[in-house]
Write the structure tokens for this entry.
Amino acid sequence: MTEPFVHTSYASRVVFGPGTLQQVAAEVELLGVRRALLIATGSAQQAADETQVALKELFAGRIDGVRQHVPTEVAEAARAKAREVNADGVVAIGGGSAIGLAKAIALTADVQILAVPTTYAGSEMTPVWGETSGGSKTTGTDLRVLPKTVVYDPTLTLQLPLHTTAASVANALAHCVEAVWTEKANPITETTAVEAARALSKGLRTTLANPTDIDARSNLLFGACLAGSALASAGTGVHHKLCHLLGGTYNLPHAETHAAVLPQVARVKAVEVPQAKARLEEALQTHDLATGLFDLFAAANVPTSLQALGLTREQAKEAADRFPGDVEEILTRAWAGTRPEGATR
Ligand code: NAD
């Protein structure tokens, strides 16, 4: 029997498939945007050049410099640019950092976002924004920042380096795994998360062997889309909150931080939701969720310790003290990169 539940979904238009970058201009027009500000990550310059030409008179301006965790000074400069060109829309091509910058603009100005994600971070499907100031990251939820249209073109991800690919998949898997134990977790988010995990693990295994396999890259992007929508509806829990604290305070790389922390959080949290744990294990083809994740990331050469990301033991202790909740064991193990055998609860 399905237990009673409450689920909130977030509406956006999704256009998915190889070559869909060419539909961006038509999609911008469909949104009713008259003056589009283009934001492009370093790797997406060619895609941005093509889009700029295709937008014709709808093109209003362009920002090429994006930085991780949306530093306030970068957000302020982008807002000023949006005002200067009188933008009523933002087209963001890139990973979570480019889309995060578009969200920072939408938070204070009346603009619609069209996102073209080129990593698996999933931000494009969520109404969650983040901004970092003075070593502290603030996040919030606001419907104004939810992209109205998302164009997923897997051809844009063919050159994503394997290391970045695997770390970004770890970020997406973190959305799936945490989506089964948050307060807002429900049968819809759980099923979405399980299918996302299946597509991500299948896509990753093939991509590691053949990085330019378009079917595998499509699986990864589809998994990222599902994982992002699971995150949007289920919200965040201890894992994401801890990663935001670490990323914002110590400027750690976002996706890699997820990879180091997730297996350790899964070790203690997943046993609280045995049925969902079993479904995820089946989807990931592993007998134990925590060690399965750890081994998957290790096999993909993603660092499985915070130490390898440059965090000192003292900083790990400091973060555990600052976190509202007992995460000392999780952080000790994540810092050292201990294989997460044996759940404690
Ligand atoms: P990123 O956007 O910083 O990209 C990582 C690197 O990969 C960059 O150097 C980028 O230029 C490069 N890159 C991106 N796409 C590429 C491609 N197709 N080919 C080659 N290189 C490419 O990193 P990210 O992990 O995508 O995003 C991290 C940020 O997103 C963090 O700030 C995080 O907080 C945020 N985020 C937000 C949400 C949300 O819901 N708000 C969800 C996930 C992540």
